Amino acid sequence: MQTAMSAPFNATTRVPVSQRIFFPAFLSELRVATRLLVVDDVSQNRTLLERMLTAEGYSVASAADGAIALRMVEAEAPDLIVSDVDMPNLNGIEFCRRVKENPATRLVPFILITGLADRANRIAGIEAGADDFLGKPFDSQELKARVRSLLRLKHYTDELDSAESVILSLALTVEARDPYTRGHCQRLAAYAVLIGERIGASDEQLSALHRGGYLHDVGKIGVPDAVLFKPSGLTHDEYEVMKRHTVIGDRLCGDLRALSLVRPIVRSHHERLDGSGYPDGLKGDAVPLLAQIISIVDEYDAITSSRPYRQAMPPDRAFDELSKDVQKGLLNPDLVDILNAVGHDTLVAMAAEADRLAADMTAT
Question: Is it the case that residue 33 has pLDDT exceeding 70?
């Protein structure tokens, strides 16, 4: 059996957990609501671009250099940026790079204005993440066409992000139905990402683990309250109904490319290495590794959290129970050891911080 330590991961630059899930604001399809940012140190050029784009019905703001523009973007991201290259304080290429490095703004379309024969700046712009280029002197019709094309693509991207946010909202709605599980999603996301970092997961895999912490039980939106909140043990038929939440959740995630690594977590986090889990009875390496991680932290959190029928247990008791499941061949021993090695005090502190985050989200 392939263990966590031998899994084929590629380490990359980390993105703070707080930036891995976004709740995009609603963007109107009306052109008048589309906000553009024009950046050029030459006032005549800024004025010309502003007039041309305003005449097309866009809301246009401007800045005289990249440093000012970057502060404006950080305060409120525009829908598209048009920037010159040669500017004081912060040139257009470095401005573009910083916009594209920020997870909150990296999908904002960016057009660089550069000389037609300026090959070096075009190559540097491509490496910085620019989406398109406009040559000097630029043609007004070409500018308008490029802006329309990039905004059309951004609209499609926003629709996908909005769909993901709707699914995430459903997951939080499921959690909110039960006061005993408040903070559960936040704690799972934090624990899972920590394990992922310890085994060298890529940024995409860490993002999937974070989203998986929130979305793993989203399918419970389709489970009747009488089953979901039954205070006593479930009958055989009720248990079969409960088990359907994994398949329902998988279907809810649908074909969203942003959730392609999350779907196996949602579907398979109740699978067990000996094949006794559900819904597919997967065994050994067939159980997705990210789903194995969520499975372990889900069990740990269930044991260390209060329930109507029992009080929360301390971490050492939780790891006693996890060790029993390892001995039964249900859980990956390497992953359990990694979580245990974090330190019980650290895990308790992480849970407290996750609970604070959950309370803040509820308050807002």
Answer: no
Question: What separation in angstroms does the CA of 277 have from each of 50, 209, 234, 323?
Answer: 60, 20, 17, 17
- Look at residue 363 in the predicted model and tell me its pLDDT: 56
Cβ-contact 110, 96 below 8 angstroms:
yes
**Region for residue 18 given its phi and psi (left: phi exceeds 0; alpha: psi -120 to 50; beta: otherwise):** alpha
**pLDDT (average), residues 125-145:** 88
Spatial strand order in the sheet of 80-84: 59-63, 35-39, 80-84, 110-115, 132-136
Tokens of 121: 């700046």
Listed residue (116, 110, 122) closest to 138, CA to CA: 116
Q: Is residue 147 part of a domain?
A: yes
- What is the domain extent for residue 45? 34-160
pLDDT score of 118: 73
Q: Domain tally for the chain? A: 2
Q: Could you tell me the pTM of the whole model? A: 0.63
